[in-house]
Write a structure and sequence with these properties.
This protein is of the alpha+beta class and 158 residues long. It has one domain (14-157). The protein has one helix at residues 14-76; strands at 83-87, 98-103, 108-113, 121-124, 131-132, 135-138, 144-149, 154-157. A 4-stranded mixed beta sheet has the order 1-7-8-5, with helices on one face. A 4-stranded antiparallel beta sheet has the order 4-3-2-6, with helices on one face. A hairpin with a 7-residue loop joins strand 3 (108-113) and strand 4 (121-124). The mean pLDDT is 88.
Length: 158
Amino acid sequence: MLRKLHDDENAVSISIGFILTFSITVLIMVTVLSSFYSLMDRSEQTVMHDEFEIHGNDIAVRIATIDTMVGTTANSGSDIDEIRYELSLPMKIAGKPYSVEFINSTKDIVFISDERENTRVKVPYYTENTRVISTTLQSTQGGYTMTYEPETNTITIA
């Protein structure tokens, strides 16, 4: 009796089919989950970047407002005792702490996430009549104040 092995399906086992199906399913699930997590990570970075730009522009406008008020009062012959703004910044953005650096030499406000270097955002500011003292703020401190000091003609942020 001669049998053809090519058409013989007696050696196919249910357990081998199950193992193959299970392995393929696991591989597909791992691929889908890893792409989902990378997508979530990217959206988190986008949120941080956008929030940094919004807060940086708000601070730059406040610096420009103080500078304009100082220039206007100086041109009119008046004196200023003190100008003070309360800065309201969140303690965390996208669940991560961050720092804000004011660089007087380049006139930039730099937001840097403590855990993500690629979310660094620079926002320029412009002053004509005053100078901003270079400093670094940590988001975990909370309660910041922007103060114009007429004796030194500077804006201090602390």
